[in-house]
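C-alpha coordinates incoming
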Protein backbone atom coordinates (compact mmCIF):
# COMPACT_ATOMS: atom_id res chain seq x y z
CA UNK A 1 0.00 0.00 0.00
CA UNK A 2 1.22 3.46 -0.84
CA UNK A 3 2.14 5.69 2.06
CA UNK A 4 -0.14 8.64 2.83
CA UNK A 5 1.54 11.72 4.28
CA UNK A 6 -0.94 14.30 5.68
CA UNK A 7 -0.10 18.04 5.73
CA UNK A 8 -0.28 18.08 9.53
CA UNK A 9 -0.66 15.51 12.28
CA UNK A 10 -0.70 15.29 16.08
CA UNK A 11 1.91 13.51 18.21
CA UNK A 12 0.29 11.46 21.00
CA UNK A 13 2.39 9.20 23.21
CA UNK A 14 1.88 7.02 26.30
CA UNK A 15 2.47 9.94 28.67
CA UNK A 16 -0.47 11.76 27.07
CA UNK A 17 -2.70 8.72 27.36
CA UNK A 18 -1.76 8.16 31.01
CA UNK A 19 -2.49 11.81 31.85
CA UNK A 20 -5.96 11.62 30.30
CA UNK A 21 -6.81 8.31 31.96
CA UNK A 22 -5.80 9.74 35.33
CA UNK A 23 -8.44 12.48 34.98
CA UNK A 24 -11.04 9.98 33.76
CA UNK A 25 -10.55 8.10 37.04
CA UNK A 26 -10.84 11.28 39.13
CA UNK A 27 -13.94 13.09 40.46
CA UNK A 28 -13.75 16.02 38.04
CA UNK A 29 -14.33 15.68 34.31
CA UNK A 30 -15.41 19.10 33.10
CA UNK A 31 -13.84 22.45 34.04
CA UNK A 32 -11.93 21.88 37.26
CA UNK A 33 -8.42 22.00 38.75
CA UNK A 34 -6.64 20.70 35.64
CA UNK A 35 -8.06 23.51 33.47
CA UNK A 36 -6.57 26.01 35.92
CA UNK A 37 -3.24 24.20 35.98
CA UNK A 38 -3.14 24.22 32.17
CA UNK A 39 -3.95 27.96 32.09
CA UNK A 40 -1.18 28.74 34.59
CA UNK A 41 1.32 26.66 32.62
CA UNK A 42 0.44 28.36 29.32
CA UNK A 43 0.68 31.82 30.96
CA UNK A 44 4.09 30.93 32.34
CA UNK A 45 5.29 29.56 28.99
CA UNK A 46 4.20 32.74 27.18
CA UNK A 47 5.47 35.06 29.90
CA UNK A 48 2.06 36.66 30.62
CA UNK A 49 -0.06 37.20 33.70
CA UNK A 50 -3.36 35.64 32.68
CA UNK A 51 -4.70 32.81 30.51
CA UNK A 52 -8.29 31.63 30.04
CA UNK A 53 -8.94 28.28 28.34
CA UNK A 54 -11.85 27.77 25.95
CA UNK A 55 -13.63 24.97 24.08
CA UNK A 56 -11.94 25.98 20.80
CA UNK A 57 -9.79 28.63 19.18
CA UNK A 58 -12.98 29.97 17.61
CA UNK A 59 -14.82 30.45 20.92
CA UNK A 60 -11.61 31.98 22.32
CA UNK A 61 -11.56 34.49 19.44
CA UNK A 62 -15.22 35.37 19.90
CA UNK A 63 -14.68 35.87 23.63
CA UNK A 64 -11.62 38.06 23.10
CA UNK A 65 -13.59 40.32 20.75
CA UNK A 66 -16.46 40.44 23.25
CA UNK A 67 -14.05 41.20 26.11
CA UNK A 68 -12.71 44.04 23.93
CA UNK A 69 -16.32 45.25 23.72
CA UNK A 70 -16.60 45.23 19.94
CA UNK A 71 -20.07 46.28 18.92
CA UNK A 72 -22.27 47.23 16.01
CA UNK A 73 -20.76 50.02 13.95
CA UNK A 74 -17.16 49.20 14.94
CA UNK A 75 -14.59 48.31 12.31
CA UNK A 76 -11.79 45.81 12.83
CA UNK A 77 -8.86 45.80 10.42
CA UNK A 78 -7.70 42.26 9.67
CA UNK A 79 -6.10 40.09 6.98
CA UNK A 80 -8.05 38.29 4.25
CA UNK A 81 -5.45 35.48 4.36
CA UNK A 82 -6.58 33.51 7.41
CA UNK A 83 -8.87 30.77 8.60
CA UNK A 84 -12.46 32.04 8.47
CA UNK A 85 -12.89 32.13 12.27
CA UNK A 86 -10.66 35.22 12.68
CA UNK A 87 -13.16 37.28 10.72
CA UNK A 88 -16.38 35.30 11.22
CA UNK A 89 -16.20 36.05 14.94
CA UNK A 90 -15.85 39.78 14.24
CA UNK A 91 -19.13 39.50 12.33
CA UNK A 92 -20.79 37.70 15.25
CA UNK A 93 -20.01 40.78 17.38
CA UNK A 94 -21.91 42.80 14.70
CA UNK A 95 -18.67 44.63 13.89
CA UNK A 96 -17.31 44.96 10.36
CA UNK A 97 -14.14 43.20 9.21
CA UNK A 98 -12.14 45.66 7.11
CA UNK A 99 -9.46 43.79 5.24
CA UNK A 100 -5.97 45.11 4.57
CA UNK A 101 -3.83 43.33 1.98
CA UNK A 102 -0.85 41.12 2.85
CA UNK A 103 2.83 41.69 2.16
CA UNK A 104 4.00 39.64 -0.81
CA UNK A 105 7.00 38.18 0.98
CA UNK A 106 5.95 37.55 4.62
CA UNK A 107 2.27 36.87 3.69
CA UNK A 108 1.27 38.84 6.81
CA UNK A 109 -0.96 41.91 7.00
CA UNK A 110 0.81 44.95 5.51
CA UNK A 111 1.19 47.81 8.05
CA UNK A 112 1.11 50.33 5.20
CA UNK A 113 -2.30 49.04 4.13
CA UNK A 114 -3.56 49.05 7.75
CA UNK A 115 -2.84 52.79 7.86
CA UNK A 116 -4.90 53.34 4.73
CA UNK A 117 -7.90 51.51 6.21
CA UNK A 118 -8.20 53.45 9.49
CA UNK A 119 -11.42 55.48 9.85
CA UNK A 120 -13.27 57.09 12.76
CA UNK A 121 -15.03 53.77 13.27
CA UNK A 122 -11.88 51.63 13.59
CA UNK A 123 -11.72 50.04 17.06
CA UNK A 124 -9.21 47.22 16.71
CA UNK A 125 -6.57 45.50 14.62
CA UNK A 126 -6.79 41.69 14.48
CA UNK A 127 -3.50 40.28 13.23
CA UNK A 128 -2.75 36.70 12.17
CA UNK A 129 0.79 35.30 12.34
CA UNK A 130 0.45 33.41 9.09
CA UNK A 131 2.12 29.99 8.93
CA UNK A 132 3.67 30.64 12.38
CA UNK A 133 5.56 33.74 11.31
CA UNK A 134 4.82 36.77 13.57
CA UNK A 135 3.74 40.00 11.84
CA UNK A 136 5.73 43.22 11.68
CA UNK A 137 4.73 44.20 15.23
CA UNK A 138 7.26 47.03 15.43
CA UNK A 139 5.10 48.92 12.93
CA UNK A 140 1.74 47.51 14.03
CA UNK A 141 2.25 48.45 17.72
CA UNK A 142 3.01 51.99 16.71
CA UNK A 143 -0.12 52.19 14.54
CA UNK A 144 -2.27 50.73 17.33
CA UNK A 145 -0.83 53.14 19.91
CA UNK A 146 -0.98 56.26 17.71
CA UNK A 147 -4.62 55.56 16.83
CA UNK A 148 -5.76 54.20 20.19
CA UNK A 149 -6.72 50.81 18.76
CA UNK A 150 -6.99 47.48 20.49
CA UNK A 151 -4.50 44.88 19.20
CA UNK A 152 -5.84 41.34 19.11
CA UNK A 153 -3.44 38.71 17.83
CA UNK A 154 -4.78 35.49 16.35
CA UNK A 155 -1.70 33.37 17.03
CA UNK A 156 -3.41 30.07 16.30
CA UNK A 157 -0.57 29.38 13.83
CA UNK A 158 2.15 30.73 16.04
CA UNK A 159 2.23 29.17 19.50
CA UNK A 160 5.84 29.38 20.70
CA UNK A 161 6.93 31.77 17.95
CA UNK A 162 8.96 34.87 18.87
CA UNK A 163 9.18 38.52 17.98
CA UNK A 164 12.23 40.48 19.17
CA UNK A 165 12.96 37.63 21.58
CA UNK A 166 9.49 37.69 23.18
CA UNK A 167 7.00 34.85 22.78
CA UNK A 168 3.64 35.32 21.06
CA UNK A 169 1.07 36.07 23.71
CA UNK A 170 3.27 38.53 25.54
CA UNK A 171 2.85 41.61 23.34
CA UNK A 172 -0.73 42.14 22.02
CA UNK A 173 -3.65 43.24 24.24
CA UNK A 174 -5.06 39.72 23.87
CA UNK A 175 -3.62 36.72 22.02
CA UNK A 176 -5.52 33.63 20.90
CA UNK A 177 -4.24 30.07 20.50
CA UNK A 178 -5.94 26.93 19.16
CA UNK A 179 -5.26 23.36 20.28
CA UNK A 180 -6.78 21.62 17.27
CA UNK A 181 -4.77 18.48 16.34
CA UNK A 182 -2.91 20.16 13.45
CA UNK A 183 -1.66 22.95 15.72
CA UNK A 184 1.53 22.96 17.85
CA UNK A 185 -0.02 21.21 20.85
CA UNK A 186 -3.46 19.63 21.02
CA UNK A 187 -6.34 19.09 23.43
CA UNK A 188 -8.52 17.50 20.71
CA UNK A 189 -10.55 20.69 20.46
CA UNK A 190 -9.55 23.69 22.55
CA UNK A 191 -8.29 27.25 22.67
CA UNK A 192 -6.85 29.92 24.95
CA UNK A 193 -6.77 33.68 25.34
CA UNK A 194 -3.72 35.13 27.08
CA UNK A 195 -3.43 38.72 28.30
CA UNK A 196 -1.67 40.98 30.80
CA UNK A 197 -4.89 42.96 31.32
CA UNK A 198 -6.87 42.10 34.46
CA UNK A 199 -10.13 43.63 33.17
CA UNK A 200 -10.03 41.48 30.03
CA UNK A 201 -9.13 38.46 32.17
CA UNK A 202 -12.20 38.91 34.40
CA UNK A 203 -14.50 39.47 31.40
CA UNK A 204 -13.16 36.42 29.58
CA UNK A 205 -14.00 34.15 32.52
CA UNK A 206 -17.60 35.46 32.56
CA UNK A 207 -18.04 35.12 28.78
CA UNK A 208 -16.87 31.49 29.01
CA UNK A 209 -19.55 30.59 31.55
CA UNK A 210 -22.97 32.07 30.58
CA UNK A 211 -22.10 35.49 32.03
CA UNK A 212 -22.72 34.11 35.53
CA UNK A 213 -21.44 36.51 38.20
CA UNK A 214 -21.22 34.55 41.44
CA UNK A 215 -22.12 36.43 44.63
CA UNK A 216 -21.51 34.01 47.51
CA UNK A 217 -22.42 36.72 50.03
CA UNK A 218 -26.04 36.08 48.93
CA UNK A 219 -25.71 32.31 49.30
CA UNK A 220 -23.49 29.60 47.83
CA UNK A 221 -25.93 29.03 44.91
CA UNK A 222 -26.36 32.71 44.07
CA UNK A 223 -25.35 34.26 40.75
CA UNK A 224 -26.49 37.18 38.60
CA UNK A 225 -26.49 37.69 34.83
CA UNK A 226 -25.58 41.14 33.51
CA UNK A 227 -24.62 40.03 29.98
CA UNK A 228 -25.86 36.63 28.81
CA UNK A 229 -23.25 34.40 27.19
CA UNK A 230 -22.46 30.84 26.12
CA UNK A 231 -21.00 27.69 27.57
CA UNK A 232 -17.49 27.86 26.06
CA UNK A 233 -15.85 25.72 28.77
CA UNK A 234 -13.14 23.16 28.10
CA UNK A 235 -12.80 19.97 30.16
CA UNK A 236 -10.22 18.69 32.65
CA UNK A 237 -9.91 15.63 30.38
CA UNK A 238 -8.75 17.83 27.50
CA UNK A 239 -6.48 20.00 29.62
CA UNK A 240 -4.71 16.92 31.02
CA UNK A 241 -3.79 16.16 27.41
CA UNK A 242 -2.80 19.81 26.91
CA UNK A 243 -0.49 19.80 29.95
CA UNK A 244 1.19 16.61 28.84
CA UNK A 245 1.59 18.02 25.32
CA UNK A 246 3.08 21.24 26.71
CA UNK A 247 5.89 19.15 28.26
CA UNK A 248 6.98 18.33 24.70
CA UNK A 249 6.65 21.80 23.16
CA UNK A 250 10.39 22.47 22.87
CA UNK A 251 10.87 19.22 20.97
CA UNK A 252 7.80 19.87 18.77
CA UNK A 253 9.00 23.33 17.75
CA UNK A 254 12.61 22.22 17.26
CA UNK A 255 11.36 19.47 14.92
CA UNK A 256 9.17 21.89 12.97
CA UNK A 257 12.10 24.30 12.57
CA UNK A 258 14.40 21.50 11.48
CA UNK A 259 12.00 20.29 8.77
CA UNK A 260 11.37 23.85 7.55
CA UNK A 261 15.14 24.35 7.30
CA UNK A 262 15.56 21.17 5.27
CA UNK A 263 12.76 22.25 2.91
CA UNK A 264 14.25 25.72 2.54
CA UNK A 265 17.70 24.32 1.75
CA UNK A 266 16.20 21.88 -0.78
CA UNK A 267 13.93 24.34 -2.59
CA UNK A 268 15.70 27.70 -2.40
CA UNK A 269 17.50 27.27 -5.71
CA UNK A 270 14.72 25.49 -7.56
CA UNK A 271 13.31 27.55 -10.38
CA UNK A 272 9.51 27.44 -10.16
CA UNK A 273 9.28 27.31 -6.35
CA UNK A 274 8.95 30.35 -4.09
CA UNK A 275 9.68 29.44 -0.46
CA UNK A 276 8.20 31.18 2.60
CA UNK A 277 10.28 33.89 4.30
CA UNK A 278 10.43 34.94 7.95
CA UNK A 279 9.73 38.46 9.15
CA UNK A 280 13.18 39.89 9.97
CA UNK A 281 12.73 40.35 13.76
CA UNK A 282 10.71 37.14 14.14
CA UNK A 283 11.33 33.48 14.74
CA UNK A 284 8.55 31.42 13.18
CA UNK A 285 7.23 28.32 14.94
CA UNK A 286 6.33 26.88 11.51
CA UNK A 287 2.71 25.75 11.69
CA UNK A 288 2.71 25.14 7.94
CA UNK A 289 5.15 25.36 5.02
CA UNK A 290 3.39 27.05 2.09
CA UNK A 291 5.27 27.07 -1.21
CA UNK A 292 4.26 29.03 -4.30
CA UNK A 293 4.38 27.64 -7.83
CA UNK A 294 3.32 28.75 -11.30
CA UNK A 295 -0.37 29.67 -10.84
CA UNK A 296 -1.37 28.16 -14.19
CA UNK A 297 0.17 24.82 -13.20
CA UNK A 298 -0.85 24.83 -9.54
CA UNK A 299 -3.81 22.47 -9.98
CA UNK A 300 -1.67 20.03 -11.99
CA UNK A 301 1.12 20.00 -9.38
CA UNK A 302 -1.41 19.71 -6.55
CA UNK A 303 -3.08 16.70 -8.18
CA UNK A 304 0.23 14.99 -8.93
CA UNK A 305 1.29 15.27 -5.30
CA UNK A 306 -2.08 14.02 -4.05
CA UNK A 307 -1.73 10.99 -6.34
CA UNK A 308 1.70 10.32 -4.88
CA UNK A 309 0.10 10.14 -1.40
CA UNK A 310 1.23 13.60 -0.31
CA UNK A 311 -1.89 15.21 1.14
CA UNK A 312 -1.05 18.77 0.22
CA UNK A 313 -3.54 21.52 1.04
CA UNK A 314 -4.18 25.21 0.27
CA UNK A 315 -4.26 27.80 3.09
CA UNK A 316 -6.49 29.76 2.37
CA UNK A 317 -8.95 31.15 -0.13
CA UNK A 318 -8.90 34.84 0.89
CA UNK A 319 -11.97 35.60 2.99
CA UNK A 320 -13.26 38.46 0.82
CA UNK A 321 -13.94 35.91 -1.93
CA UNK A 322 -16.48 33.94 0.15
CA UNK A 323 -20.14 34.52 -0.79
CA UNK A 324 -21.01 35.89 2.67
CA UNK A 325 -18.29 38.55 2.62
CA UNK A 326 -19.15 39.58 -0.94
CA UNK A 327 -22.85 39.86 -0.20
CA UNK A 328 -22.61 41.40 3.27
CA UNK A 329 -19.77 43.88 2.73
CA UNK A 330 -19.49 44.25 -1.06
CA UNK A 331 -16.01 42.76 -1.38
CA UNK A 332 -15.06 41.44 -4.82
CA UNK A 333 -12.31 39.77 -6.86
CA UNK A 334 -9.35 42.08 -7.30
CA UNK A 335 -9.79 43.90 -3.97
CA UNK A 336 -6.70 42.34 -2.37
CA UNK A 337 -4.22 41.57 -5.13
CA UNK A 338 -1.39 40.16 -3.03
CA UNK A 339 -3.66 37.77 -1.12
CA UNK A 340 -5.29 36.59 -4.36
CA UNK A 341 -1.98 36.18 -6.17
CA UNK A 342 -0.66 34.13 -3.27
CA UNK A 343 -3.84 32.02 -3.11
CA UNK A 344 -3.70 31.20 -6.81
CA UNK A 345 -0.17 29.81 -6.59
CA UNK A 346 -0.06 28.31 -3.08
CA UNK A 347 0.43 24.73 -1.97
CA UNK A 348 0.93 23.72 1.66
CA UNK A 349 3.26 20.72 1.87
CA UNK A 350 3.40 18.33 4.88
CA UNK A 351 5.05 19.61 8.06
CA UNK A 352 4.58 17.99 11.47
CA UNK A 353 7.00 16.86 14.21
CA UNK A 354 6.46 13.14 13.70
CA UNK A 355 7.63 13.22 10.06
CA UNK A 356 10.45 10.75 9.45
CA UNK A 357 13.61 11.50 7.43
CA UNK A 358 12.24 9.16 4.80
CA UNK A 359 8.93 11.02 4.57
CA UNK A 360 10.70 14.39 4.37
CA UNK A 361 12.90 13.16 1.54
CA UNK A 362 9.91 11.63 -0.21
CA UNK A 363 8.07 14.96 -0.11
CA UNK A 364 11.14 16.86 -1.34
CA UNK A 365 11.78 14.58 -4.30
CA UNK A 366 8.14 14.45 -5.42
CA UNK A 367 7.64 18.21 -5.05
CA UNK A 368 10.76 18.80 -7.15
CA UNK A 369 9.60 16.29 -9.75
CA UNK A 370 6.08 17.75 -9.99
CA UNK A 371 7.39 21.33 -10.26
CA UNK A 372 10.10 20.48 -12.83
CA UNK A 373 7.40 18.96 -15.04
CA UNK A 374 5.12 21.98 -14.61
CA UNK A 375 6.86 25.32 -14.57
C1 LIG B 1 -7.13 26.92 13.81
C2 LIG B 1 -7.39 28.36 13.66
C3 LIG B 1 -8.47 29.00 14.28
C4 LIG B 1 -9.60 28.29 14.97
O1 LIG B 1 -9.26 27.39 15.88
P1 LIG B 1 -10.25 26.17 16.27
O2 LIG B 1 -9.62 25.66 17.51
O3 LIG B 1 -10.25 25.22 15.13
O4 LIG B 1 -11.61 26.75 16.53
C5 LIG B 1 -8.57 30.38 14.17
N1 LIG B 1 -7.68 31.10 13.47
C6 LIG B 1 -6.65 30.52 12.84
C7 LIG B 1 -5.68 31.37 12.10
C8 LIG B 1 -6.48 29.14 12.89
O5 LIG B 1 -5.47 28.57 12.24
Amino acid sequence: MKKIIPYGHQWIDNEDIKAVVKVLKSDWLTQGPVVEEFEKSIAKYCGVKYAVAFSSGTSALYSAYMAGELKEGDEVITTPLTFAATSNMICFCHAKPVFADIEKDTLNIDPKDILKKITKKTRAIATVDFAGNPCNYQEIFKIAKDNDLLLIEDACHAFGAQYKGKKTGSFADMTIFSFHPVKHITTGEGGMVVTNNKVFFERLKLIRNHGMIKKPENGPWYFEIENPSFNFRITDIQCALGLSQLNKIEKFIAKRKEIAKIYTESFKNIEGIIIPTEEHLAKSSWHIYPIRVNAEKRMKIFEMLQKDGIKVHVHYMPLHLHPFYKKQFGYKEGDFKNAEEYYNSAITIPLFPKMTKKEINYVISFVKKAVLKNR
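note: The first strand starts at residue 50 and ends at 54.
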